Amino acid sequence: MSRSVAARVSATVAAIGAVAATLLATGGPAAAADPAATGTVTVSVPLSVEAALAKAGLAEVPGSPASVGYDNTNRAVTESFPVTAGTAKVSTLTGHLDLAGKLLIVNFTNGKCVTFTSVVFDLFRDQITAVPNGSASPVVLFDTIGTRHAGTAGTTNTFTASAVQVHAAGASYLDAALGTSYFVAGQNAGSFSSSWQFTG
Length: 200
Description:
200 residues
């Protein structure tokens, strides 16, 4: 990808992030049954993926307190969600993490958009789920695949996956909600990293 294209993608993401910050409220509280935790889950989206989305008239950006950034070394847009609670254990690769923030996906060609809340990373199923606006049921949006690493350092847990792909259910929902045929199962969505520790 040329520097000019990369610059345009970065500028577009930054602009959308600024707009989304005014549109999206802080994510709701984590489930009371889950122990409190702190940390971060980050999906790094390559500029090539962002460019393909932009070419299709699409964009996605996290809402506060989740944040969007740019990794110049790996030429990727980073979307980071704070961990608020969960049960995830790297020793057994079980449990889940409750994440704060929202995810907004927009189709600029027809003005349709969808906002996801209650974002959860399921360590056991290697999946990221979220609840779309107007629904009470979560949708499986992404799978974490590829090379995975899990470990602990003191009280901090870490889990990474070399790839994130669009789940079939997520692709179907997004295409229907946004009036597009862009999303397909297995589509590259970036890479995954997380770290957390329990505080409760």
